[in-house]
């Protein structure tokens, strides 16, 4: 691998005669896949995100655990007080960084950090630093109505509740009912009194309830930002998984936008985040939302660091404002890979024609896969598959899959 990287950094001077650049790249990606244990498809997909030498840093960082971090629950204590109590118990810790005033990094501990009396009393949440970011961007204000559309197990819900100072209301939704148990447990442990837990498919909003000041969509994703925590991602994701996820994310983001009241005096904000680093799940979804909902615009996340989102990627061109979105990487920021985009929602211009009205209404169920084009029948198959999964998750009976119509293809 080192030899290939060396050559690719100065190809014209170092390449063996007769060997093309793409031969070296193919060799390097194959070696990465073998050495780090990825399937070829994912190794290639992740490799494409970075310049050659940086790609190796990214794959290397995925082999190392990120720092253990906790978030102070300001509904029950202050960071300084919590730090002191934990130090007295033999925990070696330090504030995370200037960008958060509630995070602590734990270096070592003589007690299990997930079972101290302070943990059980809800004084803190064990939470990755990257998970604070979407809520920092959301910046909820006291008395607001907030929807956390995919919220289990509640790291971000409880953070939102704390920033609301237990005023207003947080609708904490998750399509997976089983996961709402841990969500409810965390809501109780942390003493959040302004949270309503519910379990709908996010695509049912805003029909279920709408008119929120702010909506967080911490979307279901492939988890390519958290490979150091879950190495199964290295081998269990295929191209089809990314297509299905991107499709679902596009549907959910439109519903998140439509659930916000543009008349909100304090908010009218949507934050979209994933713990994935792929463009399909991030910039492509955000760009899709900008195209389908002309009443939204991207704004600064307010996080203050992070790499700019891509405005161009492998032949795809996104809206220039996508550079306002932020990417976080394990090898750069020493936190899980993450992506955060913040939208401001404005009043919808009245659609001029009935055709426009129909188009706006249909967009959620009829996600186009642009700029990559897909066959409509295939799309239908993905939608059906995703509906089946949702029904199964809700414990509903699912009809057997339809057999493909072989006669039609002969
Ligand atoms: C990244 S996790 C959310 C983590 C959570 N925000 C937190 O901070 O603890 C994504 C969640 O989306 C939920 N989910 C998947 N499909 C969904 C859908 N169609 N509607 C709503 N939630 C969905 C999953 O059950 C999962 O809990």
From TrEMBL:
Keywords: Methyltransferase, Nucleus, Ribosome biogenesis, RNA-binding, S-adenosyl-L-methionine, Transferase. Signal peptide: none annotated. S-adenosyl-L-methionine binds at residues 150-156, 174, 201, 218. Residues 350-410 are annotated as: Disordered. InterPro entries: MeTrfase_RsmB-F_NOP2_cat, MeTrfase_RsmB-F_NOP2_dom, Nop2p, RCMT, RCMT_NOP2, RsmB-like_ferredoxin, RsmB/NOL1/NOP2-like_CS, SAM-dependent_MTases_sf. GO terms for molecular function: RNA binding; rRNA (cytosine-C5-)-methyltransferase activity. It holds the Pfam family Methyltr_RsmB-F. CDD domains: AdoMet_MTases. GO terms for biological process: maturation of LSU-rRNA; rRNA base methylation. Residues 389-401 have a biased composition (Basic residues). Residues 58-346 form the SAM-dependent MTase RsmB/NOP-type domain. It is found in: Nucleus, Nucleolus. GO terms for cellular component: nucleolus. The active site is at residue 275. Belongs to the class I-like SAM-binding methyltransferase superfamily. RsmB/NOP family. NCBIfam families: nop2p. This is Nucleolar protein 2.
